[in-house]
């Protein structure tokens, strides 16, 4: 019997069969708008299809210019565009997969001045006030959805997904929050649901019966004046009559102030919501959000929560996810850690998406590991993210790699980060490296410090990835017993205090605060912490968040002005800020440190001299590169390369470190110079 029998069971849709229960969920990559982007998308999707994903759903493509997310973003509304899409569908079909085009009208989320919506109400995440759709424009929009579906069918897609959740146009029509119309398209719930049903009917009529039509329905809006479960059930039943093949269950609007996909959200946190709909419809349901291992996927399916599971970022992280799971090699899966730093953050910054743990993602035509023409002996010094990435990649290319690490464990700063409750997923990345280094015959030498003299002349190439060390805090009284460097606190070498001042509010300072606040680590605790109704009775699914005062009193401090606590990440910074404020953390910016004594930390804040009466001061005041070995090796004439934090000790950046290590690892056939 297969290790994951439910995940790998086929699903008969009547006119076609999905070979297993996996769907690659929709995710915009930024390739859609680039020159030769469809060629790159074809390679991206084909690699995942070849590994066994049953059905891929593309990133959102608008049915008309008004529905586009931004000026120049992907639209499919003309026959002459079909040929470019055929590159993608042909590649996926040749790889043995199926693919559906997501039709996405962004409505008031559009980032341009001709956005449209049911009512002219600004979205909190867009500066543009939308124009209210006239009845004629609504009817044209319905026709545009049908037209795009017909063009998708002509392009060779196996189906379409109608995007009706996450706060986009169709979702905006469904709730009073954004639909304040008094005509036949607003007011009563029946009127507000008309657009979703009419679009589905028009799409089905345009494509016929033997074509997959998915509707992504919002089951949990997580916004004030949002929908209810009973309304979603009524809509789902109407959509079933209208001809949908599958229902994909969306969770949370983009403007919702509750995290739904970030790493602090427990795995499989929302499959219970999908299960709540299951008894009310006959069409198969798709569960979504934070499903990142075959074990979680199998549990959801075996438990009867859903009929299929949708994974987007996990297949960005490892294109071979399904093949490895089927072969019983789940330990070799490069697990998505839900950090968002190279995927969603990139897309919202107008960059091409990639993946922190897999720099090849969306660069399949550019970055590849090829067998070395000449195997070299390579020493990598330092087993943090940069060193691990370089050592593994070089070994996969066929080089003979020795990895030296002064400590007793792999991971460096990444190893520390995994101790933070909200970053427990980082353990998966270290597990992946540990397994793959052994499999690729890397000689791992822990508890081993090496000098330039021990390395020079013994290896063809040496890579210095010795990372960083905490910067010293230069202040009178910094040697006081209450002062603790952040590595000692995170690693558990010192006990936590009760009143704690955190000096430095960058990513590490925020992590320390999270550790001290004891983040929720179960689904029940997460729902309570963020105020999500587990009974699905409250409008929008919202309750009052847990407002209990934590057992520790914290001050998060920074020298620069402004409110501290953002941490890195455009799509996750707000989560940290909101949680810190809700947990009553004192967020002080623009402080001037004076001295430390038995009374606490003396400083100037808001122009007033104050003393924080703390019993512990945690220093998170930045890092310094550890790279003296690099200069010593250069002096001895050794071919040497400097990467990761050892090269640049700015705000710790695992994304940069892993990519740097990967790029160096595939380049040893080419490099001849001592500088990278």
From TrEMBL:
Query: GO MF annotations for this entry?
Result: FMN binding; iron-sulfur cluster binding; metal ion binding; oxidoreductase activity
Q: Which residues form the NADH:flavin oxidoreductase/NADH oxidase N-terminal domain?
A: 7-329
Keyword annotations for this protein, in alphabetical order, are:
Flavoprotein, FMN, Iron, Iron-sulfur, Metal-binding, Oxidoreductase
Query: What cofactors does the UniProt entry give for this protein?
Result: [4Fe-4S] cluster; FMN
Q: Where is the FAD/NAD(P)-binding domain?
A: 377-637
Q: Which InterPro entries match?
A: Aldolase_TIM, FAD/NAD-bd_sf, FAD/NAD-binding_dom, NADH:flavin_oxidoreductase, OxRdtase_FMN_N
The record, for SUPFAM superfamilies, names:
FAD/NAD(P)-binding domain, FMN-linked oxidoreductases, Nucleotide-binding domain
Which family is this sequence assigned to?
A: In the N-terminal section; belongs to the NADH:flavin oxidoreductase/NADH oxidase family.
Q: Which Pfam families match?
A: Oxidored_FMN, Pyr_redox_2
What protein does this entry describe? NADPH-dependent 2,4-dienoyl-CoA reductase
């Amino acid at each position: 019997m297969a290790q994951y029998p439910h995940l790998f069971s086929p699903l008969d849709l009547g006119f076609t069969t999905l070979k297993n229960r996996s769907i690659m969920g929709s995710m915009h990559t930024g390739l859609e708008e680039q020159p030769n982007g469809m060629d790159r998308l074809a390679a991206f999707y084909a690699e995942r299809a070849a590994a066994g994903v049953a059905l891929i759903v593309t990133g959102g493509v608008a049915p008309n210019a008004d529905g586009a997310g931004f000026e120049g973003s992907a639209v499919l509304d003309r026959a002459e565009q079909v040929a470019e899409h055929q590159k993608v569908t042909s590649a996926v079909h040749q790889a043995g997969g199926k693919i559906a085009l997501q039709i996405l009208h962004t409505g008031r989320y559009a980032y341009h001045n001709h956005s449209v919506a049911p009512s002219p109400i600004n979205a909190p995440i867009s500066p543009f006030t939308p124009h209210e759709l006239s009845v004629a424009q609504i009817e044209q929009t319905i026709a545009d959805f049908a037209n795009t579906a017909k063009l998708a069918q002509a392009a060779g897609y196996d189906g379409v997904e109608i995007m009706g959740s996450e706060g986009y146009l169709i979702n905006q029509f469904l709730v009073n929050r954004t639909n304040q119309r008094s005509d036949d398209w607003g007011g009563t719930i029946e009127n507000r649901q008309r657009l979703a049903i009419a679009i589905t009917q028009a799409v089905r009529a345009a494509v016929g019966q033997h074509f997959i039509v998915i509707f992504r329905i919002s089951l949990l809006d997580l916004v004030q004046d949002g929908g209810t479960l009973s309304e979603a059930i009524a809509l789902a039943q109407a959509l079933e009559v209208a001809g949908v093949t599958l229902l994909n269950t969306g969770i949370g609007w983009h403007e919702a102030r509750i995290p739904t996909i970030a790493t602090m959200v427990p795995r499989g946190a929302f499959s219970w919501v999908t299960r709540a709909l299951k008894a009310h419809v006959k069409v198969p349901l798709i569960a979504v959000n934070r499903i990142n291992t075959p074990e979680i996927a199998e549990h959801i399916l075996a438990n009867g929560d859903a009929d299929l599971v949708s994974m987007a970022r996990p297949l960005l992280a490892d294109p071979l996810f399904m093949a490895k799971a089927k072969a019983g090699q789940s330990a070799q899966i490069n697990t998505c850690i839900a950090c968002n730093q190279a995927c969603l953050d990139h897309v919202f910054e107008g960059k091409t998406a990639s993946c922190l743990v897999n720099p090849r993602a969306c660069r399949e035509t550019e970055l590849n590991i090829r067998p070395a023409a000449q195997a070299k002996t390579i020493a990598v010094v330092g087993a943090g993210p940069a060193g691990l990435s370089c050592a593994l990649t070089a070994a996969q290319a066929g080089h003979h790699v020795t990895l030296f690490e002064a400590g007793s464990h792999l991971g460096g700063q990444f190893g520390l980060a995994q101790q933070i409750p909200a970053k427990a997923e980082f353990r998966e990345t270290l597990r992946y490296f540990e397994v793959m280094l052994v499999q690729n015959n890397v000689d791992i030498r822990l508890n081993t410090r090496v000098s330039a003299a021990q390395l020079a002349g013994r290896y063809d190439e040496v890579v210095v990835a010795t990372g960083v060390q905490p910067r010293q805090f230069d202040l009178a009284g910094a040697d006081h017993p209450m002062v603790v460097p952040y590595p000692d606190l995170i690693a558990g070498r010192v006990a936590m205090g009760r009143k704690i001042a955190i000096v430095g509010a960058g990513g590490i300072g925020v992590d320390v605060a999270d550790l001290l606040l004891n983040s929720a680590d179960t689904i029940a605790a997460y729902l309570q912490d963020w105020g999500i109704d587990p009974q699905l009775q409250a409008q929008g699914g919202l309750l009052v968040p847990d407002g209990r005062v934590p057992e520790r009193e914290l001050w998060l401090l920074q020298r620069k002005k402004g409110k501290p606590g953002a941490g890195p990440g455009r799509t996750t910074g707000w989560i940290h800020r909101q949680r810190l404020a809700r947990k009553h953390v004192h967020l002080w910016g623009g402080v001037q440190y004076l001295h430390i004594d038995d009374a606490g930390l003396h400083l100037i804040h808001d122009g007033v001299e104050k003393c924080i009466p703390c019993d512990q001061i945690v220093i998170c005041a930045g890092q310094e590169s550890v790279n003296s070995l690099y200069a010593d090796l250069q002096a001895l004439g050794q071919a040497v390369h400097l990467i990761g934090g050892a090269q640049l000790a700015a705000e710790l950046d695992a994304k940069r470190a892993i990519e740097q290590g990967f790029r160096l690892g595939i380049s040893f056939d080419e490099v001849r110079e001592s500088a990278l």
